[in-house]
Amino acid sequence: MAKYSVHQQPVETLLSWIKSGDIAIPEIQRPFVWNASKVRDLIDSLYQGYPVGYIITWRNPDVKLKNGELSAGKKVLIDGQQRITALTAAIVGQRVLDKNYKEINIRISFNPLDEKFDVFNKAYEKSPEWIDNINPIVNDEISISKAIRKYCQDNPHANEDLVEERIENLKRIKTKQVGIIELDASLDIDTVTEIFIRINQKGVVLSNADFVMSKIASDEKFGGNTMRKMVDYFCRMLVDKGFIKHIVDNDHTFTQTNYYNEIKWMASGSDDLYVPDYIDMLRVAYTFKFSRGRFSDLVALLSGRNFETRSYEVDIAEASYLRLSAGLSAFVNQTNYQRFVMIIKSTGLISKKLISSQNSLNFAYALYLKLREDGMGEAETQGYVKRWLVMSILIGRYSGSADSRIDEDIKQINEKGIAAYLIQMEQANLGTGFWDFGIINDLESSSVNNNAYNLYLAAQVNKNAVAFLSKSMKISSLIEQRGDVHHIFPKKYLMNYGYPQKAYNQVANFVFTEQATNIKVGMLTPKDYLDKVKTQILAGTNVISTLDSESSLQENLINNDIPNSIDGADHFAYEKFLEERRRLMANKIKIYYESL
């Protein structure tokens, strides 16, 4: 049995379907990405009779209504939105949003003598040879005979038969055919999602979360279109505080909703540690409220899927929209959001540079919202959230196939409770072998985008540690200010002895230090620059270091996990030094994790 049908329809039929709601178009909250010249080219292709690509729709599954009757699913546009928007802008006169989310008109002008289309400008408005806006003619707002008569009056030397032929051809744009591929309602959600992702790629990586967004945006019955606006607007305000002015100026309807009141605080929010996009917002709200991780299940639930009877019911769709809305409202709640950011910072993860896994943050936030809703105390909740966050980053829990891992974890936490499941995860992943070998191997790296190394820095921040050879400068300050990362064995010194970049840039050779210290050390061996520090301490001068006593030097070396062998170390001892320091760093991470 065919899973899709391919047919042609005239432009006017397609537009009438959209106007009547037979095809649900996701409300266009994002800027229209085509420029006006691309709209012109589309209209020209229709005029010339050239193919303009396919519109792809999917008929939502039939839904069982509360009275037991079946309601035929609406067609949802899953590809071709830009083409449809271009047609409605040029032919129907619908306004579109520009890159600043401001409503604009796109007017296309036509020169019948040259058979040329162009984007409207003031010159065409003044030129008698140009019809400055094709919309009234194509859209039946003025009669074709009147349009021809007026054009010939304005251009008395024009060939009247030629003008008539070309204006009639312009009028026929609405009768030109557009290809439509209709996916059958019998296709399962996973297949439709996969088709959506594949046909929409065009150089942009899309996910099934994009399909969720398209599904939500096309819903008017349960307020999905407004929910979609809230998600888009919140994400935009995270990175552009001034965007609230565009909402207030251009979307008065939205400013009257509860969603607007829930998100408007972000216009004055200042933190940039957790900057979710729309996928992250959906992920957290969905995991928190539905205790699931696979987005394809969310599309099914929003469609009214009853997983037991394998039918689709309007009650389930309605309940699913309500739950998702509640999850998103909890996500954007100012108290929840700011407390969660505070929890992240309290672990020592004070910079985005230290967090390689956005999904670790997402799951931790979903866990925080869940434990609070379950009535767990704030202090206990924060302890579990911190530990889960650090553990998941440490073992790379959500790298790769995040959906299935998230799905498994939230279901296990529901079934066993966070305390029991966290112990189970620690026993399975953080045993003696991990601390004695696994993490030490992870630290054998020249990449600073290394989970183990970043958590080592978080451990330093968490303990309020002071920078290498510094009396009072905190490592946290240097990380926030992008301070110098210093090579304990200077880079140029090791290069002179033939060490390659992969060797001298080992993370176990890195410490944070003040710029002045870094410059003064130069190419000296560790033995030479530490001898100078000791001499200067005795002399009461601070050339290389701000440390002022032998005991403070020893304490500084211990706190920065520098092995004792550093005192007499030269390039021959470098490899042994790295091995010793990796063990010390691993031990610090272990103590840090267990203290959370």
Summarize the structure.
With 596 residues, this protein is of the alpha+beta class. Helix 17 packs across helix 18. The radius of gyration is 32 Å and the shape is elongated.
Structure characterization notes:
A hairpin with a 5-residue loop joins strand 7 and strand 8. This protein starts with a strand and ends with a helix. The model has no long low-confidence stretch (mean pLDDT 89). It has three domains: 4-187, no CATH class; 191-430, no CATH class; 442-595, no CATH class. The strands form six sheets. A five-stranded mixed sheet has the order 1-11-3-6-2, sandwiched between helices. The longest helix is centred in the last third of the chain and has 22 residues, at 574-595. It is 55% helix and 9% strand. It is an alpha+beta fold and 596 residues long. Helix 9 (208-217) crosses helix 10 (224-239), helix 14 crosses helix 16 (314-332) and helix 17 (334-346) crosses helix 18.
Features:
596 residues, 3 domains, 5-stranded mixed sheet, two-stranded antiparallel ribbon, GmrSD_N, DUF262 domain-containing protein
What is the topological layout?
Elements: E1 4-10, H1 11-20, E2 23-24, H2 36-48, E3 54-59, E4 63-64, E5 70-71, E6 75-79, H3 81-92, E7 96-97, E8 103-104, E9 108-111, E10 116-119, H4 122-126, H5 135-138, H6 144-154, H7 160-171, E11 177-183, H8 189-200, H9 208-217, H10 224-239, H11 243-250, H12 252-255, H13 258-263, H14 278-290, H15 295-302, E12 305-306, E13 311-312, H16 314-332, H17 334-346, H18 358-373, H19 378-394, H20 402-416, H21 418-429, H22 432-442, H23 451-462, H24 475-480, E14 484-487, H25 491-496, H26 501-504, E15 510-513, H27 515-521, H28 526-539, H29 550-559, H30 574-595
